[in-house]
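Folds vary. Our protein:
___
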Amino acid sequence: MRIIGADLKEAMRHKRSFTTKSERQHYVTEYDIKADKELVKLVKKLFPHDSITSEENPAIKGTSDVCWYIDPISNTRNFIHGLPGFAISVGVMNIKTQEPVAGFVYDPMLDEMFTAEIGKGAFLNGDKIQVSNIEYGEHAFINADWQKRRTYKEVEEGMDIFTRVGRECTVRAVGSVALMVAYTAMGRLDGMVNNYSDRFALIPAWPIIREAGGEILDLQGNKWNLDSNSTFVTNNKITKGILACLKKS
């Protein structure tokens, strides 16, 4: 991942062209495709019996109970514009239990590698990390974002969430979903709310936040899963406050 990350960092010095997929504002660059191909090749070589689901290539069906989820550039939009806040994200999930096994989120601009394996802790560049102890309120630092590819109504809903939470906490909309989950895991953020769900970014970060003492829910307070359509990442101190805030009329 660090070798691929070095290529992405070098690419920031040059003009980056892009195309769009079928969905509105769904961008892809030659670097997404190249990184995706290299990561898939590596997983196939090391774990030939596992399934692979990547954002830029057709799914590969394996014979084991393990599936790898690959997002070669989480937040391609930042990458296109030369902004930091993008990441390479790879997650491992048990197909039968639908539970995370391990995750890797790498920020090439800061050379920060977040890793976790269920039952073994969460780490940043080899140092153990944990969530913050900040309670809900004015001192809570929350990333609030919304999906711009959706309907006008859903965009308005996302902006309303940003405003509601922003009245009671400090909010930002920074970048990669995977990175924002990792930032919550290490205490840079206290939580994250989105009115959409990006499984390619969330599955890699899921074991990291869980092993650091936090959790991923949806905006109704249910445990997050592959069918969820919203995201609430919490340090487990802000949970009640955020859910109460979102329920206010």
